[in-house]
Design a protein that fits this description.
Elements lengths: L4 E9 L3 H15 L3 E9 L11 E5 L9 H11 L3 E5 L1 H14 L4 E6 L14 H12 L5 E4 L2 H10 L6 E2 L7 H7 L6 H4 L5 E5 L8 H13 L5 E5 L5 H10 L6 E5 L4 H6 L3 E4 L8 H8 L3 E5 L5 H4 L7 E3 L4 H13 L4 H8 L4 H12 L4
Parallel strand pairs: 1-2, 1-4, 2-3, 4-5, 5-6, 6-7, 8-9, 8-11, 9-10, 11-12, 12-13
C-alpha cells in the first residue's frame, strides 16, 4: 500500500457529530499507516482534543471558518498533501478556492453534513446566495463531493441540479470506539437495573427536541411506567429544560448531568436510546447506541434516522414533535428490545474499513 500524506480538516472541535467524525477519520487513516494532519479551525472552551497515535493536530485558532483561508493556502503550498478531506460547506468552498489559487495537486473530497436548505438561498445578493454561487463556481475542483445520507444527496440535487454529490457514511465503528463500551460508569442510575433507563445525548439546543423527550417521559410515568431519563450534553437550552423538568415534577426521574467524554459506556448500560431532533444530517449517535447494544427509538426527522434504522428494522421510528408517539415508541422498545445480532448488522455500513474503502474508490486511490 502506498503511504499517503492525508489532511483531514474541520472548522471546530466540539463534542458533537462533525468534529468527532473528522477525528475518527484522521485516526483511522493513521492506523492504516498514512501520514495524517488533523487541522482544526478552533476548539471549544474547556475541551481537550484527544490524542490519536500517528495524527499531527493543528488548531489554527480561527474564530470563523473564513479565517482558515490564509492558513490553508500556506499549508497546501508547504505540505503538499496527496489527499485532503474537509467537512461542512463553508469550509469545503474555502478549501477549493485555496486549492485553485495554489494550483495544489491534492485530491480533494468535501463532505456536506447539514441540509442545503439551511445553507444556501436563491434570493440574490444575500450571504447564502453568494455562498451558493461560490460553491457552484469551484465545485469542478473537487474530486469527490459527498453527503452523509441518501436523503441529503437528494436535497443537494434539488438545490444544485448539476450536483455530483454521493452518499458516504461517517466512520462510527472502529476499535478505539469499541474499547470505550466496556469502561466503567460511576453513576448509580446506570448501574441500577430495577428501573428502566432511557438515555438521550446531544447539544442542549432547541432543534434537538429534548423538551419533547422530557414530556414523553412524563407520559410514560403517568401511564404507570417508573422510568428514568438521562440527557447527556450541554448547551443554551439547559435552563429551559431544567425548568420544564421542575414544572412537570420530574426531578426524581430526569437528570441532565452535562457532557461526557465517553457516551458509549452510558449507552451500553441503558435500556433505550431516544433521539428527538427536529433535523439531523445523519445522527451518528444512533449508530453509537446500536454499537453499544442499546435499542434506539428515533423521531422520523429529516434526514438520516429512517435510513439508519432501515424503516424500523434496527429500531423504532416515531412522529416528530409528538411526545405521545415518542412515548409509545419508547414503550414498544422496552417491551421488545432489538436483538444484539440485528443491531450489529445495522452498524456494519459505518465500520471504518467500509467507509474508507468507499472514499478511496471515489478518489481513484488503490489502497
Amino acid at each position: 500500500m502506498t503511504r499517503l500524506k492525508i489532511a483531514v480538516i474541520t472548522p471546530r472541535y466540539a463534542i458533537s457529530g462533525v468534529p468527532l467524525a473528522q477525528w475518527r477519520f484522521a485516526a483511522a487513516f493513521a492506523t492504516m499507516g498514512h501520514e495524517v494532519d488533523l487541522i482544526i479551525g478552533r476548539c471549544d472552551a474547556n475541551l481537550e482534543i484527544p490524542p490519536a497515535p500517528g495524527v499531527r493536530v493543528t488548531v489554527i485558532g480561527s474564530g470563523q471558518t473564513r479565517g482558515m483561508f490564509s492558513y490553508l493556502v500556506r499549508y497546501l503550498r508547504r505540505a503538499k498533501p496527496d489527499v485532503v478531506f474537509s467537512a461542512e460547506d463553508h469550509l469545503n468552498t474555502i478549501l477549493l478556492v485555496a486549492a485553485i489559487l495554489t494550483q495544489s495537486k491534492a485530491k480533494i473530497s468535501g463532505s456536506s453534513r447539514v441540509t442545503p436548505y439551511d445553507t444556501y438561498s436563491s434570493t440574490p445578493f444575500t450571504k447564502r446566495w453568494l455562498l451558493k454561487w461560490m460553491a457552484r463556481a469551484v465545485a469542478w475542483r473537487a474530486n469527490a463531493l459527498t453527503c452523509v445520507s441518501h436523503d441529503m444527496v437528494d436535497q443537494y440535487r434539488d438545490v444544485f441540479p448539476d450536483a455530483k454529490h454521493v452518499c458516504v457514511y461517517n466512520i462510527v465503528d472502529q476499535p478505539a470506539a469499541r474499547a470505550k463500551i466496556a469502561q466503567a460508569v460511576d453513576d448509580p442510575w446506570f448501574n441500577d437495573k430495577t428501573r428502566p433507563l432511557i438515555v438521550g445525548a446531544g447539544s442542549l439546543m432547541p432543534w434537538k427536541g429534548f423538551d419533547d423527550l422530557i414530556r414523553a417521559v412524563r407520559i410514560l410515568i403517568t401511564g404507570g411506567r417508573s422510568v428514568r431519563l438521562v440527557i447527556l450534553g450541554e448547551g443554551g437550552s439547559r435552563p429551559t429544560l431544567e425548568a420544564l423538568v421542575g414544572e412537570l415534577g420530574l426531578e426524581e426521574h430526569v437528570r441532565l448531568p452535562g457532557r461526557t467524554d465517553n457516551p458509549l459506556a452510558y449507552f451500553a448500560r441503558a435500556d433505550v436510546f431516544a433521539l428527538s431532533s427536529h433535523v439531523e444530517g445523519l445522527p451518528n449517535v444512533l449508530v453509537e447506541a446500536m454499537m453499544a447494544g442499546c435499542t434506539p427509538v428515533s423521531v422520523d426527522c429529516p434526514t438520516g434516522p429512517r435510513e439508519v434504522l432501515q424503516e424500523g428494522r434496527y429500531g423504532y421510528l416515531t412522529r416528530m414533535r409528538d411526545p405521545e408517539d415518542l412515548a409509545a415508541g419508547i414503550a414498544r422498545a422496552l417491551e421488545r428490545p432489538i436483538a444484539p445480532d440485528i443491531l450489529a448488522e445495522g452498524v456494519r455500513p459505518f465500520h471504518q474499513d467500509v467507509v474508507i474503502r468507499r472514499h478511496f474508490e471515489l478518489l481513484g486511490i488503490v489502497a
